[in-house]
Structures are given as C-alpha cells and as structure tokens.
Amino acid sequence: MKLTDTARFSTVCIHAGQEPDPSTGAIITPIYQTSTYVQEGLGQHKGYEYGRTHNPTRMALERNLAAIEGGTAGFAFASGMAAIDAILTRLEAGDHVLVSDNTYGGTFRLFERVRRKFGLDFSYVDTSRLDLIEPALTPRTKYLFLESPTNPLLRVTDIAAASTIAHRHGVRVVVDNTFASPYIQQPLALGADIVTHSTTKFLNGHSDSVGGIVIVRHDDDAEWMKFVQNAAGAILSPMDSFLVLRGTKTLDVRMERTNRNAQAIAEFLAAHPKVTETIYPGLPSHPHHALASRQMRGFGGLISFDTGSLEAARRLLGRVRLMALAESLGGVETLISHPAVMTHASVPAERRAAIGITDGLVRVSVGIEDVEDLKDDLAQALG
Asked: How many whole angstroms separate alpha carbon 78 and alpha carbon 214?
C-alpha cells in the first residue's frame, strides 16, 4: 500500500507506516510481543536486536504518527508525561523553558517538582498574548513550550506567530497538541519544531491505552530522541502501540463527530441560566474565536464551563447519568471532570486562582454519542 506524496489526511491515518505482514499478508500490523530477536550470526540480524530498542509494532505507530503530523520522525513513550520528560533531556542545567501559563497540571508538576531540582528553569506567561512572549525570553531560553488550546481554559496561541518570535532568538518551539489532535491542527506546518501528544487521548480514542509520542522535524532532535528512548527505556508497549494504531484509523471520522457534538453542547451551555460562563473556541464569545477559526479545523471536543461555586459543581457532577465522572479525555464516550480537584490539583490554589481555574469550573470531553442524549443529561443534571 504505497502512499503518494499527495495522499489526504484520512488516507494517511489509515495507511501510513504500515504494510501487510510479509509472512501472512495480514492487513493489520501484528502485535510483536517479544523481548528479543534471534540473530543469524554474530553481528547478523534482521534489523531487530532487543525489544527496548526496536519493535515492529511500535515502529509502525511511530511512522504512522510522524506522517499524520507531517514530521521527520516519531518516538513513542509509555505515557504523555514520559514523552514530555524525554523532550527535556535535550536541555542542561541552567537552561530555561518558557511555558504557556495555563498548562496541564501534570506538566506543571513535572517542571516544578522534578526537573527544576536538576537545574532547569521555567517561567510562565499567557502565550495567547504574543506581546508577553518576547520580553520573557532570556539568553538561556532553549524551548518555548506551548499548549493550544490550553487545559482547561482553552486559550489559543497563534502558533505561527509565536514560532516566528521564538526562532528570532534561536529558541525551538514545542507544542503539546493533545487537546486539538492532528485532525484539528498541525503545529509543525505552522512553524513549530517538536510536537507531543498524550496518545491516551484523541489519538487512541477508546480509553484503553496510556502512551505518549514525540514528533520532530529536525535531524538532530531525531537523533537525540532515538538515543534517549533506548537509553532511558520509557517505551510504549507493543499492545499499546497496536491499540493506538487502531485508533488513528478512525481519527478523521471520530473528530468530525466530536466537533459537531461539542459545538452543539457549547451552544446549549452558553444559553443555560445556571451556567455563568461557557468557554469554547467555537463560540463567538471566546476571545480567540477568530484565531481558532483560522488555525484550527473545527474547535475540538473540550468545553469548560463555570457553575458558580464548588457546591454547584459538586451537585452537577453527582447528578450526571450518561457522562462519566473521570479524568482523561478524547475517548468515544463523554467524560466530565472538575479541574481544581482532579486534573489540576497539583497546581497551588493561588496559582489556579490567578490563571482563572475556579472552584466552580467543570470540564467536559465530548464523545460521539447522540448529541441530544448528551444535552438531556446536562439538562437534568443542571435542573
């Protein structure tokens, strides 16, 4: 199945990086559940030596995701956080990273409570405000680390403009594209240098795998990622690689439905009298709606809305029947969560307040159920 250079998105998702199994003709890449490979002689092998270093299932996924994001190479890790940590291993003590201030709580925890101990420096600005980026760069800044849309306030950064600013100072741009998925936006095409995902989310899409991916455009980044993936060993398992490969085959159709459902749910919440604020880039009221319309293909499956208080949020979360109260996002089923208590509990309360994560804020990851059933569930829970 030879792809042409002009193959379109859904075709790339289904076919890139995968060939029929040479021994059987199986159209689906097998799960190569092996730790090692028999060698024909000393120094003679078929390109595979040891499971940490090489695995055909994982390599098929890495080629698939690199093609989907338009990168040079991809490297799969055991979780999204392991992927982000691997990116940081290119840095040395004293180096500085400028980060979107509304970043995921787990990312903030890794940066502040783990990597800062090893001499890295981090500072945070609202990168949706381009005027704040350049003044925050220093001679020691090596990465501009962006989330767009952010978790959970869904702020949108102009990736192309931010990349131009960073590159003027010799700074590489890393984009956590988990919330959007490559269906919604492709940061490398917008000028970024490295893209990372928690494959657990939209790429897998079925809430049955945990993993991460780093996709790069520069050869030196590819060489280092290949080295550190083997040296540190936080690799994605063959089974999880297989599950994500299955997920990317339906990424296009899942995201189409997710976009439609989320837009309808956001409009429903925006009109509800018990919701004080609805945050969704697809709403004209969103401050970055125009940018999102240019930069993104649809507005994604995440919605945040404010119920006004912790008690109101608690009542809502206790009443939903169809939506599942759970961390994570990006599955075919709709999940609902409370950022202050769940995903961003590791962020100090004063910092949450400063960036706008209130105790009444609720986040919904909209799935692909019938949208009328989802609206009915919210209506009765809010009623």
From this structure: 11
Task: Tell me: do 189 and 264 sit in the same domain.
Answer: no
Sign for the CA dihedral angle at 370, 372, 375, 377 comes to: negative
CATH number at residue 74: 3.40.640.10
Q: What is the pTM of this model?
A: 0.95
Give me the pLDDT at residue 353, please.
87
Span 301-317, average pLDDT: 97
Domain that holds residue 173: 9-248
The alpha carbon of 12 is separated from its chain's Cα centroid by a whole number of angstroms, namely 19
Are 86 and 226 in a shared domain? Answer: yes
- Number of CB atoms found within 10 A of residue 6's CB: 6
- Final residue before a domain boundary, out of 248, 263, 279: 248
SS3 state at 31: coil
Chosen domain end from 230, 248, 266: 248
Tell me the chain's radius of gyration from C-alpha atoms. Answer: 21
Q: 235 with 260, same domain?
A: no
Over the chain, what is the mean pLDDT? Answer: 96
Q: Into how many domains does the chain fold?
A: 2
Question: CATH number of the domain that 293 lies in?
Answer: 3.90.1150.10
Distance CA 287, CA 154 (A): 10
Nearest to 147 by CA among 94, 201, 95: 201
**Considering only CA atoms, which of 356, 361, 363 is closest in space to residue 101?**
356
Residues with a known catalytic role = 52, 104, 176, 201
Confidence band (pLDDT; 50, 70, 90) for 346? confident
The burial class, CB within 10 Å (0-12 / 13-18 / 19+), for 168 is exposed
Tokens linked to 172: 């590489």
pLDDT for 128 equals 97
- Tell me, rounded to whole angstroms, the distance of Cα 148 from its chain centroid: 9
Distance of alpha carbon 125 from alpha carbon 102, whole angstroms:
8
- How does residue 1 score in pLDDT terms, banded at 50, 70 and 90? low
In a domain? residue 2: no
